[in-house]
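Human: I wish I could look at a protein chain and see how it folds. This is the protein in question:
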Amino acid sequence: MTAWLGPEFPPFLEAMSAPPDVGLRVNTQKISPENFLTRSPFPLRPVPWCPEGFVVTDPTARPGIHPYHEAGLYYLQDPAAMAAALLLDPRPEEWVLDFCAAPGGKTTHLAARMGNRGVLVANEIHPRRARVLAENLDRLGVTNALVVNEAPGRLAERWEGLFDRVLVDAPCSGEGMFGREEAAARDWSEEAVRGCARRQSAILEDAARTVRPGGLLLYATCTFAPEENEGVIARFLKAHPEFDPVELAPHPAFDSGHPEWVGETDPRLRRAVRLWPHRGPGRGHFYALLRRAGGEHPRRPRYTGRLPGRGRALYEAFIRQTLRNAPETGLIFRDGRVYQTVVPPDLWEGLRVFRPGWLLGQVEGTAFVPSRALAMALRPEDVLWAHRLEVDDPAVGAFLRGETIPGPDGVGWVLVTVEEFPLGWARATRRGLRRVAAGAPRPEGGRDGSNKR
């Protein structure tokens, strides 16, 4: 690193030794950055490359346990990771695939950029991490996602040439996380770097097959190791002349790729982007955006199915009693649960699907019980009964702990909100409002919700 960075090495070392920045990305599905700034409980400074991104400047703040976090108003994300969705730049109505999606920071950012329109497939090969991914999608009100739990090769075989934009946030040696995660530094070795590079190349090969002609593929890591960055991209470009790196808009905080660090001479590698911890907020990232030649669009049918039989009757009864606006098409009934899916089932049947769409609720006995995922994507005006709490009301914490809180009696299902933002469902009883529905809130990563993605 000393030879590569030259005079920039001392400030790099100082930045890596400093406490990590706590990045906060406003969830534009629920609130604008401007609106959030007027009520933010924490002092913030902007992330230069992300309009909805900020750094929490108070080191004593704990944004991961604030009610606004539970309401999905923001995601705690390393500022360098916020560049991914801006560089891939997904558009509403497109089909987007996040190949290595957990815990969901980049996935939820893609969904927000898409405005919850189009198709977003989020894959995570590890089942436990897939569960965390689904919970974060729920909390942030994502409704256009299919969560799968598959090996990359299986997706490539099934979905060749299907997606407009694909993100590979590749597992890496995590050098950018050395100051945040002790395990990243403890487990690092030159052999680990070489092993990561081999796995990254294999994942990238599979991901490339899913990109349609004319589509985009974004490769990302949170390591500085050129073997895992420029080296992986150099080998990929030699094997795939149909892909070409995209020239990205320059930014004062961004560095270019460095082909010379891996003994390469292809000038296109300089179109990659490196984010360094001493040049801007965050722990650093590498990005390479690749476009596939051509322009053909695959035929992608929409699913407009309705629920069959008993599940439909119970769901429709719930709608009449609870909602003013409700999903009524694209519905499926699976294992007692009702989902709205944006992907026709014949495209994913046979794959390990953790969640086939937006979970609306489940049938329990003779009743339909709504999900937290449904609550978190609604607005107070979508329901017949909403109970508003102010952010400093002790009842907010009591509700989140599962305690019964004061509220109206005899009105059935009630959407409990902090200000105008949903926290979950409650049933009205004679004692008050009792929280109901699966899916308790959970921070993205550690105890305060911090996470690299």
